[in-house]
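Figure 3 (text version): structure tokens given as input.
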């Protein structure tokens, strides 16, 4: 059972500096006895870079100096701040069916659409805002991996993570029935075969924004995320980079030890209402103080949820609510409602990944959390408007900023 109070006591003991190791050990021993440790994972084998159809795009040349001349070989490497994703990327095969067949039965699909999913739309959304973007997860070798590598190359998304030449990237079969239900069947591949050293090679520089999505918290790659989080420390102000964490409603699959490390790292949390309620329940946040939603009290409910969960996390928090916008809370501050941009709902998949990608892109260029959320709200709305086959399509930067400007003008 996860105990947020024990987690904060352990952190306080470590920060106090009085080296009361007996106290720390006693707390840790009690917590370990209650919670399973992350599974031991065999690190991915070292491989050479793929060639041919699976070739990884070459890295960009060194940035020029202010004089316009190329930097000398011995000069320290510099580059613009970028968004780096530790998430997993795979291929979804979406099939529309009238209904799911019974065991041993048969169903014909009206359409079959392969599309890249996982953290891909967040990466693409970030890159389309003009921010350098990199994927630090694992990509395999095979037809699905080639599809992903081609998309990365086409949109100038850099892959800086490990390559697996002995396994293809996985895929998910997504069955959409006429009642609006979705059934998922997953085949895990190279993207889920990480270990504690998966992200050791990530080169972070001041201003970078690291994006962590829940898809990398529930399989072997979680050990790599945990190692990264532990070395990041518990003081966000001491980090030259920012961490954005986007959990989903599948939090019950994240083990207690990893969840505790994530909470203690105090990242920027961003999620929808359903995931926020799941997280609040897992951490023991006082949901009983949230008013019941009855005729017009939705805003009050969201504000109370954001305030209670944010107080428990002691970290920045964004809770999204689609066209209603988002609620933002900074530690020790008031909850701010950031208006959304209403649009017609024509999508089958969530626009949350688009929101997260644009949020990270705006943070990387120095926007405040509230400003970044406003731009992300606009991008998410446009992505739904531009949906193809029910999948939100990340919009271009100029279109997003024009909608934000139009919204600001309409308010006056």
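Below: residues designed for each position.
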């Amino acid at each position: 059972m996860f105990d947020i109070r024990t987690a904060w006591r352990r952190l306080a003991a470590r920060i106090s500096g009085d080296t009361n190791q007996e106290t720390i050990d006693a707390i840790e021993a009690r917590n370990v006895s209650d919670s399973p440790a992350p599974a031991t994972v065999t690190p991915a084998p070292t491989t050479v870079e793929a060639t041919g159809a699976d070739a990884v795009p070459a890295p960009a040349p060194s940035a020029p100096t202010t004089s316009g001349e190329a930097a000398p070989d011995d000069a320290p490497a510099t580059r613009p701040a970028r968004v780096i994703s530790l998430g997993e990327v795979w291929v979804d095969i979406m099939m529309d069916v009238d209904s799911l067949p019974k065991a041993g039965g048969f169903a014909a699909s009206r359409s079959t659409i392969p599309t890249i999913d996982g953290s891909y739309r967040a990466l693409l959304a970030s890159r389309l805002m003009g921010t350098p973007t990199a994927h630090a997860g694992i990509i395999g070798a095979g037809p699905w991996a080639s599809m992903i590598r081609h998309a990365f190359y086409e949109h100038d998304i850099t892959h800086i993570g490990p390559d697996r030449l002995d396994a293809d990237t996985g895929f998910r079969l997504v069955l959409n029935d006429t009642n609006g239900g979705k059934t998922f069947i997953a085949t895990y591949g190279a993207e889920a075969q990480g270990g504690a050293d998966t992200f050791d090679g990530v080169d972070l520089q001041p201003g970078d924004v690291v994006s962590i999505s829940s898809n990398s918290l529930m399989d072997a790659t979680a050990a790599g995320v945990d190692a990264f989080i532990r070395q990041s420390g518990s003081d966000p102000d001491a980090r030259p980079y920012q961490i954005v964490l986007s959990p989903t409603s599948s939090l019950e699959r994240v083990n207690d030890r990893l969840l505790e490390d994530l909470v203690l790292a105090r990242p920027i949390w961003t999620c929808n209402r359903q995931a926020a309620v799941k997280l609040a329940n897992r951490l023991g946040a006082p949901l009983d103080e949230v008013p019941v939603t009855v005729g017009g009290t939705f805003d009050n409910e969201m504000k109370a949820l954001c305030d209670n969960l944010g107080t428990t996390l002691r970290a920045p928090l964004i809770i999204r609510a689609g066209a209603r916008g988002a609620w933002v809370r900074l530690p020790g501050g008031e909850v701010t409602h950031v208006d959304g941009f209403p649009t017609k709902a024509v999508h089958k998949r969530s626009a949350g990944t688009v929101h997260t990608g644009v949020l990270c892109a705006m943070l990387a260029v120095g926007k405040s959390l509230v400003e970044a959320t406003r731009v992300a709200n606009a991008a998410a709305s446009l992505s739904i408007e531009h949906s193809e086959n029910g999948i939100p399509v990340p919009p271009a930067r100029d279109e997003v900023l024009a909608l934000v400007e139009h919204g600001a003008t309409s308010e006056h």
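The first helix runs from residue 4 to 16.
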